[in-house]
Amino acid sequence: MTAFYDEVEIEDMLFDEETRIYTYPCPCGDKFQIAEEDIFSGDDIARCPSCSLIVRVIYDPDDFQRPDDSQGADTIPNMEESTRAKLNRLIDWAKTAVHVGFIPTVLLIGYINADPKPSILRLISPLAS
Hints:
It is found in: Mitochondrion outer membrane. The protein has three helices and six strands; from the N terminus they run E-E-E-E-H-E-E-H-H. The chain has 129 residues and is of the alpha+beta class. The termini are far apart.
């Protein structure tokens, strides 16, 4: 059995919208922390990162259900099929552009920083395999 320093109602904790973390003051001067994602997973233990104390967080699991991801599967639910196809082509093009632009840049930096300068064929030969 785990020994808790205290039991804390989630309503008594502070919630940071940016980090999505609930906090509560710890006697050591730091703060007990529990992430919203942990609460969605059913966790009820807030830990202090500076000491070994833990508190049990009291909350109603029905109030903390994971947001419905079925809507998130479709980026824009009312998007027409032709628009969706154009968007997918754009995403594929962007992925290719990143890879095509990234490799020559890395090769160029490697060539500029190398001493003595290797032949360009030696630099690109690993790409051929």
